[in-house]
């Protein structure tokens, strides 16, 4: 039998577990090793160790100290071989909106958004998608994965030790860039995206271009 003074703590523990589960959803990140306390014998005048900083920003928020998405240049360059043996050149896509999607086969949110990105690529003539697999994976394994999760857009496997310099190194997956018809970065998303988010970003960017400068 659980003592009455301990029973009252059960609801709060359940609520805490639920909150932890909710916070775990979102962009995929590599697990980090927690800091160790190598000085268990604390003294009365010793300063307490600072509490770890927890990133509580929304998935698509930009950190305050992050460089602009197109910091490597006014128009990011991307020329890369795709798994079908072709070459994808972002510079040849002027006049179209391009969704550059960093993803990985081990990232559940990435896999979940793939069908909608594929539909967006197929159904919108002015939008196309390029998938950049940010992981160490053999070509045969990627081809086998795509047989189970087919998409209409081209896929390229990145060298994680030397990712495209025109884009920020992903700090979480999926990470998606929306490139405008002028070749410039119109929007950047960290975390899952869908057709609604992409089209809303396109409408917003288009409206800003249409407004004449004072």
From TrEMBL:
<dbReference type="GO" id="GO:0017004">
    <property type="term" value="P:cytochrome complex assembly"/>
</dbReference>
<dbReference type="GO" id="GO:0030313">
    <property type="term" value="C:cell envelope"/>
</dbReference>
<feature type="domain" description="Thioredoxin">
    <location>
        <begin position="69"/>
        <end position="207"/>
    </location>
</feature>
<dbReference type="InterPro" id="IPR050553">
    <property type="entry name" value="Thioredoxin_ResA/DsbE_sf"/>
</dbReference>
<protein>
    <submittedName>
        <fullName>Thioredoxin family protein</fullName>
    </submittedName>
</protein>
<keyword id="KW-0732">Signal</keyword>
<dbReference type="Pfam" id="PF08534">
    <property type="entry name" value="Redoxin"/>
</dbReference>
<feature type="region of interest" description="Disordered">
    <location>
        <begin position="30"/>
        <end position="74"/>
    </location>
</feature>
<feature type="compositionally biased region" description="Low complexity">
    <location>
        <begin position="40"/>
        <end position="56"/>
    </location>
</feature>
<dbReference type="InterPro" id="IPR013740">
    <property type="entry name" value="Redoxin"/>
</dbReference>
<dbReference type="GO" id="GO:0016491">
    <property type="term" value="F:oxidoreductase activity"/>
</dbReference>
<keyword id="KW-0201">Cytochrome c-type biogenesis</keyword>
<keyword id="KW-1015">Disulfide bond</keyword>
<dbReference type="InterPro" id="IPR036249">
    <property type="entry name" value="Thioredoxin-like_sf"/>
</dbReference>
<dbReference type="InterPro" id="IPR013766">
    <property type="entry name" value="Thioredoxin_domain"/>
</dbReference>
<feature type="signal peptide">
    <location>
        <begin position="1"/>
        <end position="29"/>
    </location>
</feature>
<keyword id="KW-0676">Redox-active center</keyword>
């Amino acid at each position: 039998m659980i003592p009455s003074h301990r029973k009252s703590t059960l609801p709060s523990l359940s609520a805490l577990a639920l909150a932890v589960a909710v916070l775990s959803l979102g962009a995929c990140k590599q697990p980090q090793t927690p800091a160790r306390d190598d000085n268990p014998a604390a003294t009365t005048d010793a300063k307490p160790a600072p509490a770890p900083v927890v990133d509580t920003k929304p998935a698509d928020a930009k950190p305050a100290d992050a460089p602009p998405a197109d910091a490597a240049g006014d128009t990011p360059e991307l020329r890369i071989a795709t798994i079908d043996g072709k070459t994808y050149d972002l510079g040849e896509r002027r006049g179209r909106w391009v969704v550059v999607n960093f993803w990985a086969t081990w990232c559940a949110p990435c896999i979940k958004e793939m069908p909608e990105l594929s539909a967006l690529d197929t159904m919108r003539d002015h939008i196309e998608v390029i998938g950049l697999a940010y992981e160490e994976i053999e070509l045969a394994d990627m081809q086998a994965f795509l047989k189970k999760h087919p998409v209409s857009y081209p896929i390229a496997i990145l060298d994680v030790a030397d990712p495209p310099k025109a884009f920020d190194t992903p700090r979480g997956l999926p990470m998606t860039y929306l490139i405008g018809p002028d070749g410039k970065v119109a929007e950047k998303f960290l975390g899952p995206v869908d057709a609604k988010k992409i089209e809303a970003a396109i409408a917003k960017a288009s409206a800003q271009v249409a407004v004449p400068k004072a």
